[in-house]
């Protein structure tokens, strides 16, 4: 679709049903009915950044910070592998405590299991990304958040839009499967820029795209801002599926957080991935990027069984492979 077509669809709710069912059909034809589960470990909530929307921003001194040891991380990995996970996602704030050597050691240990490993640890240098890849990391998540440069720099004090782009290009060059994505509903974000976001995903040939509504957090400068619209976020996701048919798209936690059936609706509108948290419940609560985050109370084992039953009820099964992007 060209930019004007994207804008037209995003601006009106008249064809939503067509859009969601078309995205569901494109999902079925290109990536099938299997859902890929990614076991998520949020291993540190310490962050040097000041992203205005995020509860982990360094200026927030009202949250309890934590950092997991290598041993702790590896025990969650082992548990997840025993539950059948074939991908582990290691996510954290931008925490310099884990220098290149520490990260590579953790990566090598995890990769002793027969699983794919995804990292989401922020902006790093080419050399660092390269070292993680050599150590065995397969994929990297780094959302662009918004392609509107002015809005990007307004939302991210001390950060440069060009560096974000540089990171994504480096990750592609090094050979990662690259995941990016955007927030929907940031203050002053336009429909025009959301259309640009989708075109950007296509331009950089993203392998995975995560899209979620913005949810205001009380300990951030955006505490008074309005919450992102679930249906608009879902439309951006559905359009992403239609325009990038073979990629992996998660039903994001933010969607489940603001709509009580958000995950299932997303899985029926283009998504094919779920990322359950596999670490301890008290850490999950402290990883408060936004309030009332879904999935912070369920035990990993019980959750997996319940999820499987729910997925079967909508005609979907859990994949047993590592869930790389389908290449034709
Ligand atoms: N609401 C919704 N999503 C958020 N993220 C960070 N803060 C918020 C918020 N307040 C998202 C960002 C980031 C991802 C890990 O979480 O898009 O890339």
Please provide a written account of the structure.
Helix 4 (100-110) packs parallel to helix 5. Strands 2-3-4-5-6-7 form a six-stranded parallel sheet. It has a three-stranded parallel sheet with strand order 8-1-9, with helices on one face. The chain contains 13 helices and nine strands. Helix content is 42%, strand content 13%. The protein starts with a helix and ends in a 10-residue tail after the last strand. It is of the alpha/beta class and 328 residues long. The model has no long low-confidence stretch (mean pLDDT 97). The site of 5'-deoxyadenosine (5AD) has 12 residues, from loops.
Provide a quick synopsis of the model.
The protein is an alpha/beta fold and about 325 residues long.
Relevant terms:
single chain, 328 residues, alpha/beta, 6-stranded parallel sheet, 3-stranded parallel sheet, binds 5'-deoxyadenosine
Low-confidence spans: pLDDT under 50, at least 5 residues? none
Q: Compute the gyration radius: what is it? A: 18 Å
Round the mean pLDDT to the nearest integer and report it. Answer: 97
Helix content: 40-55%
Protein topology:
Layout lengths: L2 H9 L4 H16 L2 E4 L1 E6 L25 H13 L4 E6 L7 H11 L5 E5 L5 H10 L3 E3 L7 H7 L5 H14 L2 E8 L6 H13 L4 E6 L16 H14 L9 H6 L3 H6 L5 E2 L6 H6 L13 H14 L3 E2 L10
Parallel strand pairs: 1-8, 1-9, 2-3, 3-4, 4-5, 5-6, 6-7
Helix pairs in contact: 1-8, 2-9, 3-4, 4-5, 5-7, 8-9
The structure holds 5'-deoxyadenosine.
